Amino acid sequence: MKGPMEDSDKVFALAGRGYCCSQIMVKAGLDAGEEENEALLDAVAGLCGGLHAGLCCGILTGAACLLSLVDKNAAAASMIPALVSWFRSTYEPTYGGIECRDILGDTPPGRNERCLAMMAETLGKCRELLAGFGHEL
To answer: Are 2 and 127 in contact (CB under 8 A)?
Structure first.
């Protein structure tokens, strides 16, 4: 089973290849299934940076896409609601919300560090949720 260090390494490597937050989350799922889908990665780029407008965090929306990619029925019925609840309880107290603009505030230089850590933590949560339905990430 993969752990936090592998998640951090994966996120860092994908960010280094130019992928944004939502793409990194989906690419992790594609890689786990040994799949390639550049059209999907291009499509989820629209979710990056809170829909490129500082709105709903691309890590969260990308993670929801990842869960649906693996098991759309369990994702809709259980995993995505659990993910959103976890994401809120984990990040809202610290940042005052779960929108990109809440998380980043006025300090874009902290973006990479902050977002990379959040992506790794969220991948771990996705792995946990998927395992509950018999899937590996």
So the answer is: yes
Which letter does DSSP use for residue 105 in this model?
A: T
- 125-130 long-range Cβ contacts below 8 angstroms, 24+ apart: 125/63, 125/83, 125/86, 125/87, 126/25, 126/28, 126/29, 126/63, 126/66, 126/67, 126/83, 127/1, 127/2, 127/7, 129/67, 129/78, 129/79, 129/82, 129/83, 130/67, 130/70, 130/71, 130/79
The domains of the chain are located at 4-131
Query: Whole-angstrom Cα distance, residue 77 to residue 74?
Result: 5
**Residue whose tokens read 């603009």:** 101
pLDDT tens, N- to C-terminus, the chain (137 residues): 567 778 899 999 999 999 999 999 999 999 999 999 999 999 999 999 999 999 999 999 999 999 999 999 999 999 999 999 999 999 999 999 999 999 998 766 445 788 999 999 999 999 999 999 999 98
Task: Classify residue 45 by its DSSP letter.
Answer: G
